[in-house]
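Our preliminary data section would be incomplete without showing what the modeling component actually yields. Below, a chain of 125 amino acids is followed by its predicted structure, encoded as tokens that our downstream tools consume directly.
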Amino acid sequence: FFVNAIIRRTFDTSSAGFIDQIIRHELVREGGPHAHTVQEIQKRQSKVLRPILSKLLKTNSKRLIDQAHINIAALCFFPKVAIPLRNMLFPKPPSEKQLEAYIEGQFQFALAGLDSLNPSPSDLI
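Predicted structure:
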């Protein structure tokens, strides 16, 4: 659900997408309080995502969960900050079917990425 919600919000042009517009603005501008804004959003999303990753990876390893968290976040937030590339993927706003297919592809890619992470013995629960 996390991947679905984040990607859908990225493409939402209504008020539900405002947070993504703020994040995009804060990520790409120099100076200002952007670090605090981004940190607060990351902290709130971490509360949801990190327990999911811990269960999927069968570990409490901070190192491994941090790596997975960054990879999943980048996968979901990519369309938000890479507008020219998003426009190459979807020259027009995507239909519901196109968006569902894109989300499913990103979700499957994320699962494959998580499967590829090899915990060391010290990373295992």
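The chain is about 75% helix and 0% strand. The mean pLDDT is 82. Preliminary results of this kind motivate Aim 1 of the renewal.
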